[in-house]
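To fix ideas at the outset, we first show an illustrative case, written as a sequence plus integers encoding its fold:
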Amino acid sequence: MSILVCGSMAFDSIMVFQDYFKNHIMPDQIHKLSVAFYVPEMKKNFGGTAGNIGYNLNLVAADFLIMSTVGEDFSSYHDWLELQKINTKYLTQINKTFTAQAFITTDLDDNQITAFHPGAMSASHHNSILKINEKPKLILISPDGKDGMIQHANESFMLNIPFIFDPGQGLPMFNQEELTSFIDKASYITVNDYEAELLVKNSGLSLQEIGQQVEGLVITKGASGATIFEKGKSYDVPAFKVDKPIDPTGCGDAFRAGLAFGIIKKWGLEQSAKLGSALAFFKIQSQGGQNHKPSLSQIEDLVEFKLNT
């Protein structure tokens, strides 16, 4: 097994607001905010960081496993994973809980407002990397329960297994000491541009300083591509142009799957990020995090190189 993905499994209720949030939220009235968005479109999809990343790793025929905690309502998601032939051996059911639930509203500028119920995700520390039978070559620590993310980072470091720290929307959970501990232990860090600013603010370190402490710091910027800090230098990797984007939900997870796959293949971060951008290209043209279905040849045609040679 090459990659272990630690993260959440969640049900995503995705709604589309056919207008712009900025037209309805008055900055000077934010202290007494009370708004309602009419969303005639809604779909319930399978999601969560581990689920989405695993789905994309499956598209490129990666050797991986996912580790997560789920609730008593997980049966339909489990059936979906079985249909995709994704191994579920390290999914732990937590009794008397719901699987994590995200309620996501997206406007016409692809801005998102999300309400998230963690449910079983809060018990992610019940899973231990020390107890798995396989030894992965790379571990992805994506948004999950706080205690679980800290534990899995410490276990990865103890086992001398490189890991990608992908804090995502969970980043505000961690204080300065906890963030600097992640940075000290991680081999790679990936955040989006907003999270990068928050990481700098909450860690007290500049992007350059963070980039010097890890093998690679990757900052995704949506349609603007990604910026990579590596070996004291920074460079940009462009995104693939999408004529008709539909839903950004899960694009970051798709990118991280490509990045992790490339790291395992020892391609270098630039080529790895290119694959990540390609997976995000296909994902954004479908609603939900696991409804895009490009073939391996379609992915290879877009990136212009073979994936499994």
User: Anything to note?
Assistant: The first strand starts at residue 3 and ends at 6.
